[in-house]
Design a protein that fits this description.
The protein has 179 residues and is α+β, with helices and mostly antiparallel strands. The chain has two domains: 79 residues, Alpha-Beta Plaits (2-Layer Sandwich); 96 residues, Alpha-Beta Plaits (2-Layer Sandwich), CATH 3.30.70. Helices cover 37% and strands 24% of the residues. Helix 1 packs across helix 2 and helix 3 packs across helix 7. It is globular and about 45 Å long. The chain starts with a strand and ends with a helix.
Length: 179
């Protein structure tokens, strides 16, 4: 089965540096096949016979921590799940956006509570938009993600869930590379 792993917080401002060629080798040494990385933010597409995503997540996190001496949270999605995420985007802007950076998807480790989602939505101010669908949060930040307070850390704190965020261009490219 084809999986996509999304590593949180690597190669940002010189923190938690991991070379993508080294990361690819690390995945291959675990026994994963057809390993491909995409950009420096820790996106890895790979094949595995293991079918429990929790086992994959745990294995990857342990191997990275052993090699690099720091913890990196990992989110795992299948190629099929990524396709569904793209198809379910609630924002028409995704279909017409040129550079794919104003719409983002935050991948949550677990389902957030309805109560926490309700509280979170009170912080969203127009023209920004936020929609929670299962374990994904869709964000529309027309003034740029860098100017938004709806950061990954903010969402993690409000939802009490570990997460990582990718822009729409990256989400689409990861799906393309996984099929």
């Amino acid at each position: 089965m084809t999986y996509i792993s999304l590593l949180r917080g690597i190669n940002v401002s010189g923190q938690k540096k991991i070379n993508m060629a080294d990361l690819k080798s690390l995945y291959e040494n675990i026994g994963f096949e057809e390993v491909t990385t995409y950009i420096q933010s820790g996106n890895v597409i790979f094949e595995s016979k293991k079918i429990k995503k929790t086992d994959l997540k745990s294995t990857i996190e342990k191997v990275i921590e052993k090699k690099y001496k720091f913890h990196v949270p990992v989110e795992i999605r299948t190629s099929k799940e990524l396709k569904t995420i793209i198809e379910n985007c609630p924002y028409e802007e995704a279909m017409i956006e040129d550079n794919g950076t104003k719409i983002l998807v935050t991948f949550l480790q677990t389902l957030p509570s309805t109560k926490k989602i309700k509280i979170l939505t009170e912080y969203v101010k127009a023209p920004e938009k936020l929609t929670v669908q299962g374990r994904e949060v869709y964000l529309y930040c027309p003034n740029g993600y860098g100017r938004s307070k709806l950061t990954t850390t903010f969402l993690e704190n409000k939802l009490a869930v570990s997460a990582t965020t990718r822009n729409w261009k990256t989400v689409r490219k990861l799906h393309e590379l996984s099929i």
